[in-house]
Hints:
The chain is mainly alpha-helical. It has one domain (about 10-200). The chain has 9 helices and no strands. The chain is globular, with a radius of gyration of 19 Å. About 30% of the residues are buried.
Amino acid sequence: MGEFFNPEKGLWAWLSTLVDVCGLSIFWAVLCLPVVTAGPATAALYYTVVKCVRRRESGAFGCFFRSFRQNFKVGLLAGLLAGLLALLLLGGHSIVRWYGTRLGGAAYVLYVAYYFALILPAGVLCWLFPLLGRFHYGVGGLFRMALQLTAAHLPSTVVAVLLTAQTAVFCIERWWPVVFMPVTAVLLLSLFFERIFQQHSPEPAPEELTEE
């Protein structure tokens, strides 16, 4: 019976993890509502998932909000640039798609080529905020490193883009997956990203954020 009531083992450990998964997903979704804060919120989510869900360290919510505050400035600027890039790419996609589906032929080939070319900038966006959550970068260095990892690890990048896109569609079409899908998707991404971060990190990843 002692093991059953131990908060670090058995049923209680799983319940604690479930609370972390649902709570972090909801906090992330709420902080993303202003849109401009989606960058630091995503960086904080990635860091906290690696630290507190994968490594099973305690204090997930405190860790999340500390990371959000510490990454706020760089994450805000990077998020604004990423949002502008995303709008330009989606606008270009709409134009090329319109011509491709109506004119056919070479125009449709151009549309297909543009569609697949989107993997590269979309990959940069997928790498951007996990990098910010795990390492210290300025805005310029953050984008450069994200671009390098996108090109150097294209298979992992494709998986990240597809996983992120499907998660977004799933949450948009049905509201309830937002309660757990953000953390679940980030946890799956971390299985690829953490292995690669160990190879390319310019400095050892911090084990924990400094308490303010």
